[in-house]
Write a structure and sequence with these properties.
By secondary structure, the protein is mainly alpha-helical. Helices cover 72% and strands 0% of the residues. The chain has ten helices and no strands. It is elongated and about 55 Å long.
Length: 197
């Protein structure tokens, strides 16, 4: 019987940089970026400080890398909703917000890592803040395009309303958890969309 050859992916060892990134993502999301020290990251990742600094020039750069990864995860979810409902921006946004409302009711939900970072880093030139701001600007632009496609009389107003609703879910999910306001998010979005037409 011939042995199955292993794939490149399964044979590839987990690099120190990957372990650092994964550990930082878990800690930063759960506890906040400022609350987590480099010593805690390297201890939990099972690497040395020099390994961390070979991969990331500073904790700030590691925080920015975490947020770039988070940004990619966000757009994967958002675009998945769009792909499920081609040419129907209303169904796309309602699908995304419905999923967000469900996630926001889970006990381990800590909101949006990008929004949290914007609060943690008010200085406009901080690397983490820049990633967060860029993401929110792109989201606002995307919502404006979707609002146009939904036939809103004033697309920027609907887009801003949807953005405020989404950001509200990020926060209230952390405060209320199960059966909180997030469970009504899709219904509220639909009311906003219908009122905008």
């Amino acid at each position: 019987m011939a042995r199955k050859s292993s794939t490149k992916e399964s044979a590839r060892p987990v690099l120190a940089a990957d372990r650092i990134r994964k550990t930082a993502r878990e800690l930063f999301y759960r506890e906040g970026i400022r609350a987590v020290g480099v010593d805690e990251i390297v201890a939990k990742a099972g690497v040395t400080k020099p390994s961390l600094y070979r991969s990331f020039t500073s904790k700030d750069e590691l925080a920015a890398a975490y947020l770039r990864d988070y940004d990619g995860e966000f757009w994967a979810r958002f675009n998945h909703s769009a792909e499920k409902h081609p040419n129907d921006p209303k169904a796309q946004i309602l699908d995304y917000i419905r999923g967000l409302g469900e996630r926001a009711q889970r006990p381990d939900y800590r909101g949006c890592g990008l929004s949290n970072a914007a609060v943690e880093y008010p200085t406009a030139d901080h690397p983490a803040r820049l990633v967060a701001e860029n993401h929110k600007q792109r989201l606002r632009a995307r919502l404006t395009e979707m609002a146009k496609g939904m036939g809103a009389k004033r697309p920027p107003v609907l887009a801003d309303g949807l953005l405020l609703l989404i950001e509200g879910v990020f926060v209230t999910g952390q405060l209320f958890g199960d059966r909180g306001p997030a469970m009504h998010a899709a219904e509220i979005a639909e009311m906003m969309i219908e009122a905008s037409r």
